[in-house]
Amino acid sequence: MPTPAISVAMSVYNGERFLAPAIESVLAQDFRDFEFLIVDDGSSDASPQIIQRYAARDSRIRPILRENRGLIASLNEMIEAAQAPIIARMDADDICRPNRFSKQIAFLAEHPDYGVVGTWSEDIGEDGEPLVRTGMADHPLTHEDLLEAIEVGGQLICHPAAMYRRDVVRSVGGYHAAFRHCEDLDLWLRLASVTRLGNIPERLLRYRRYPAQVSSRHATEQQIGTAVAQAAWRERQAGRPDPTETLERLPPIDELDALFGRPGISRQVREQVALGLRYSASAMRDEGFDLLVKHVREGGRRDGMWRTVARLLRFGEPLRALRLAATLATSG
Questions:
Q1: Torsion angle of alpha carbons 256, 261, 267, 270, nearest 10°?
Q2: Domain 6-215 is classified in which CATH homologous superfamily?
C-alpha cells in the first residue's frame, strides 16, 4: 500500500452518541488520501461495534481496540502508529467540514516553516444546533499573533481542528503525561519554540459543546494544568529547565515552589486558577471552590469575588455562597 498523505487520529471513549457523524464527516472529505486511525480506549458502550462497522465499509480506517489507557497515551500511540508525515486530529463528538483536510494540507504545503495549522470553529450544541458565540475571540492566525496570545493567556489552536507534521511533534516528545485535559496547550507551548503555528480563518470544524464533555467535567484540573503549562513556558523562555517534562502527574499546587525551585509559583498558579474558575458551575461545585477560598484567605486578588457569591446562589449553592461571603468579610 502506498504511504497516505495524512493520518487522521481519533481516540474514542464511550463516544457512541456522536461517533457516527464524526466518522462520516472524516470519510466525506474532498481530500481522500488518508488513513484513519481510531483508538477505542476501553469503551463500555457500543463505540467498538460502531468503529468496526465503519472499518468493514472503508479500508482507510485502521481500528485499534484495547483496554483503557487514557487520552494522552492514545494520542502518543497514534503518533507512533501513523504512516503519513502529516497528522490530522479529530475528536469523536465534532464534525469536519468537507474541505477541512484539503485546506489544511494546502496550507502546510505552501508554508513549510509551519509545523501546525488549525482552523476556526463553529460551536454547535448536543443536537447539532448552531450556538451563538458570546465574548469568545477567534483563534490567532499567524505565529506572531499566537506568540502574543501566549503572553496574555489567550486561545491558541482548537485541538480537534489541528493538523501537524508528525516529525516535529515527535521531536518535542509528543504529548506529556502530566497535562491531562490540557495536553494540547502544553504541546503548542513547547512547539512554539521550534516551529511556527497558525490558524486558517475559516470555520472548518463544527465543535460540539455540551455539559458532559471533558472541558465541563474536569474544569478545575484543566485550569490547574493550563496555569502550570504556562509557568513551564515562562521557565523555558527564561532559559531555565522545564521541571514538568518527565512528570507523570502534576504535584499539588502547594508543592510547585519546590518543583520549580523558587518561591512564588504556587501562589501565582493558585491565583490564576482561582480567577479563571469563578464562572464555572462544575468547578464551583468541586475542589475548585476550596481553591478559590484558600486564594482569598491568603490575601489574593478579590476581583469580582462578591459577584461570585451571587453566582454561587444562581448555581444552587447557597452554603458555598455563604462561606465565600464570610471569607471575604473576614479576610484582609
A1: -30
A2: Spore Coat Polysaccharide Biosynthesis Protein SpsA; Chain A (3.90.550.10)
Block residue for cell numbers 480567577: 275
Separation between Cα atoms, residue 315 and residue 282, nearest integer Å: 9
Q: Using N-to-C axis directions, what is the helix angle for 318-330 and 287-297, rounded to 10°?
A: 10
Compute the distance between CA of residue 70 and CA of residue 170 in angstroms, rounded to an integer. Answer: 19
Domain segments of the chain as ranges: 6-215, 218-330
CB 11 within 8 Å of CB 71: yes
0.70 surpassed by pTM? yes
C-alpha cell recorded at residue 173: 516528545
Short-list 19, 64, 18, CA closest to 42: 64
| CA distances (Å), origin 38, targets 161, 232, 301 | 16, 31, 45
Span 155-166, mean pLDDT? Answer: 97
Using an 8 Å Cβ cutoff, are 39 and 62 in contact? no
Predicted pLDDT of residue 218? 82
CB-neighbour burial class of residue 330 (10 A; exposed 0-12, middle 13-18, buried 19+): exposed
Q: Residue 173 region, left (φ>0) first, then alpha (ψ -120 to 50), else beta?
A: left
Q: How confident is the model at residue 332 (pLDDT cuts 50, 70, 90)?
A: low
CB-CB contact of 96 with 124 (8 Å):
no
